[in-house]
Write a structure and sequence with these properties.
The complex is a heterodimer. Chain A is mostly helical. In chain A, 75% of the residues lie in helices and 1% in strands. Chain A has a single domain, classed as Orthogonal Bundle (MetI-like fold). Helix content of chain B is 47%, strand content 13%. Classes of the chains: A mainly alpha, B alpha/beta.
């Protein structure tokens, strides 16, 4: 009797959780499972008769597909470029915003503007700013004498990707700034006071107190940001559509183009799965490294 | 007491029964046709036409949804795959092969045979829109024919004649490309090329008229003959060698090409009636139009079409056809074109005085004899959407040669050899 009632009680939390679980299964797990299944199929939307299981066919195709490798390489440049620039600018902004000045409150709100602007607007705005015929960036550079004539930033295969990286840096740095600022404010003032008593220089205070104390914040925000940036599609797609040629094809862009322009959902799913595995692998390695550092007490 | 109960029964229950029955009957009668459409100008509305139709056809409701053009095709395809497509959808001819392959469209031959309005639609449109299996899946709705826009004032200033051949065109384009204020920078480019998505029409105008064919009559590739490769090279050279189009050419899309024309950055470009109103608003008499120049083998321009298709999954096909037929009838079609800015498909609308006097309409009509469409092949959709833009851009950037470019196209249509 006692056991029975215990059992009933054990089930109760699951019963309470079940609505949330059900929604998660439906909107998260189901699409993931479907994507994995599609990646092993020939699934071209307009050839319903030829939809069939082809094992690793799509994966082998990706290995031989030059556009896949171009997109892969661009994805790495994209992640490293965007994240490092956002982090640097975000860090600098956070240090500035942590200083005391009379309009600090307003400055802290203003810095959020790029982050709260919808991606579509950001992308269109930057596209016109970069425009090779009447863009303001060209206008300023020519007036300042840096350029002799307007340059087609987004139509040139050597500059297009970097031009978009700069646009995304602008959009995403407030996230780092705000996260790091929160971290900075959590560092007890007493640590700095003690360091001063010991005769530490500003640089020493920064490297020995500020940086180590910020590691947990940096760790979380870097990981989140890497995942978001690796997945981002909207800004690239609106600014260049993946072009010129394949110059701004990243894996999400390529996957999107295969799915919605070629209607090839099988191959598009394969690209998406490869990207997912890559990010998962990277995050797993990253977490392990951080945990080890914590164990060793380096952090 | 009894009488009181009878009165109560009659007074309260009976009307309820009568009205509920009536309501049920009415509900069964009113059928809803879901309709997807798009206009280049999002401010225009299809509402007056719907109201007119619903007045003339009591019992049919039109539930119209304007779908953004950039996502139209993918939205339509996914709605079909998901089992919830609209009843009627605006359809581009190059989508037809894929849609037929998916068995997503209902054949309309029986309906059309009984429709008295069919003789008022241009015969050429019926011809162009009939599928290769001999069936008619599409109801004509609107058409445009691409022509050459040119800056009449600049032509006059330089004493140039409107080009009729591609050699004359290149010559004129070179002369129009110039530094107008003496600062050593090019201010005006002769020709605005659309290198981004949608630019295949520009490419086809010059390449398909000079010896290249996507699919020959024998069903083979006509893309890699020496003539075809040379024609393609000529087109690439406009940008790379002669530099008669702006440096932004590889990624210029519709908005950029039109904006360059309006701002005077370019002196010629190709488009259709849809942009004429906007051009005249900005440039007035300075803008004019003419048929596109001939290539080495004759002339080719793009017949831009749009039809209505009834989806095979629709449960209200009769009503859906009534709506398609309504829109393809002269009076209503003329109203539709006021919103779309395009040309009516009805013979009786083509004879109006306005058509004779309007210089853009005149250029369209003069181009009719050589207006063509891309072949009815299921891979044309992907060619237009992604293969052509990416490959053309690579050729413009010098990453691939003309021959490599044409081989990529050939592989797309015919597979690897």
């Amino acid at each position: 009797m006692m056991q029975k009632s215990m059992k009933r009680w054990d089930l109760f939390p699951y019963l309470l959780l079940s609505p949330a679980m059900l929604v998660t299964i439906l909107v998260i797990f189901y699409p993931i499972v479907r994507t994995f299944t599609y990646s092993f199929m020939q699934y071209i939307l307009w050839k319903p008769k030829e939809i069939r299981f082809i094992g690793f066919g799509n994966y082998l195709k990706a290995l031989e597909d030059p556009v896949f490798w171009i997109s892969f390489q661009n994805t790495l440049i994209w992640i490293v470029g965007v994240i490092s620039l956002q982090l640097l600018l975000g860090f600098g902004t956070a240090l500035l915003l942590n200083q005391k000045f009379f309009w600090r409150g307003i400055a802290r709100s203003l810095v959020l503007i790029p982050w709260v602007t919808p991606s579509v607007i950001t992308a269109l705005m930057w596209r016109w700013m970069y425009d090779g015929n009447r863009g303001i960036i060209n206008d300023l550079l020519v007036r300042a004498g840096i350029l002799s004539s307007y340059f087609p930033w987004l139509a040139n295969d050597k500059t297009a990707l970097y031009a978009i990286i700069l646009a995304l840096m602008w959009q995403g740095f407030p996230f780092f700034a705000i996260m790091i600022l929160a971290g900075l404010q959590a560092i007890p003032e007493t640590l700095y006071e003690a360091a001063e008593v010991d005769g530490a220089s500003t640089w020493q205070k920064f490297t020995r107190i500020t940086l180590p104390m910020l590691v947990p914040v940096l760790f979380t925000s870097l990981m989140l940001r890497i995942i978001w940036v690796a997945n981002s599609l909207d800004i690239i797609y609106i600014m260049t559509g993946g072009g010129p040629g394949y110059a701004t094809h990243t894996l999400p862009v390529y996957s999107y183009i295969r799915a919605y322009k070629g209607m090839d959902f099988g191959y598009a799913s394969t690209i998406a799965v490869v990207l997912t595995l890559l990010i998962t692998l990277f995050v797993a390695m990253y977490v392990r490294k951080i945990l080890r550092m914590e164990d060793r007490g380096t952090v | 007491m009894k009488r009181w109960m009878i009165v109560l029964f009659l007074g309260l229950v009976l009307p309820g029964l009568i009205f509920s029955g009536g309501a049920r009957e009415q509900k069964a009668e009113a059928k809803t046709v879901r309709f997807w459409y798009h206009f280049d100008n999002p401010e225009t509305s299809v509402k007056p036409l719907i109201e007119k139709f619903e007045r003339e056809n009591p019992g049919i409701k039109i539930q119209a949804e304007m779908v953004a053009w950039d996502a139209y095709f993918q939205k339509l395809m996914t709605s079909i795959a998901g089992g919830n497509p609209p009843d009627v959808s605006q359809i581009k001819l190059w989508w037809q092969p894929q849609l037929v392959e998916m068995k997503a469209l209902a054949p309309l031959d029986d309906y059309i045979a009984k429709w008295p309005g069919r003789t008022d639609v241009y015969e050429k449109i019926w011809e162009l829109t009939r599928h290769t299996d001999g069936k008619q899946y599409l109801m004509p709705l609107q058409m445009v024919i691409l022509y050459l826009y040119y800056r009449a004032d600049m032509f006059k200033e330089l004493g140039l004649k409107v080009p009729t051949t591609r050699e004359e065109f290149l010559d004129v384009a070179k002369k129009l490309t110039r530094d107008t204020n003496g600062d050593g920078q090019i201010d005006v480019y002769g020709f605005g090329i659309r290198g981004g998505r949608g630019g295949h029409d520009y490419w086809a105008t010059f390449v398909l008229s000079s010896g290249a064919e996507i699919i020959t009559r024998e069903g083979k590739s006509g893309l890699t003959t020496p003539e075809a490769i040379a024609a393609n090279q000529w087109y690439i050279d406009l940008y790379r060698v002669h530099k008669v189009s702006p440096p932004t050419t590889p990624t210029d899309g519709f908005n950029e090409v039109i904006a360059n024309m309006k701002s005077g950055k370019t002196a010629m470009t190709i488009h259709h009636l849809g942009s004429a109103k906007g051009m005249v608003e900005v440039l007035g008499d300075k803008i004019s139009a003419a048929p596109v120049p001939r290539g080495t083998k004759g002339a080719w321009t793009s017949f831009g079409d749009e039809e209505n298709g009834i989806l095979a999954a629709s449960k209200v096909k009769d009503e859906a056809f009534k709506w398609c037929a309504f829109l393809a009838t002269a009076e209503n079609n003329a109203l539709w074109q006021k919103s779309s800015g395009q040309i009516s498909i009805n013979k009786s609308n083509g004879q109006t005085k306005e058509a004779q006097e309007n210089r853009f309409m005149k250029a369209s009509v003069e181009s009719t004899p050589f207006a063509g469409v891309l072949p009815a092949h299921p891979k044309v959709a992907e060619f237009v959407e992604s293969v052509w833009p990416a490959t053309m851009q690579r050729a413009f950037l010098g990453q691939i040669t003309s021959e490599q470019m044409m081989k990529i196209f050939e592989e797309h249509f015919f597979g690897k050899k």
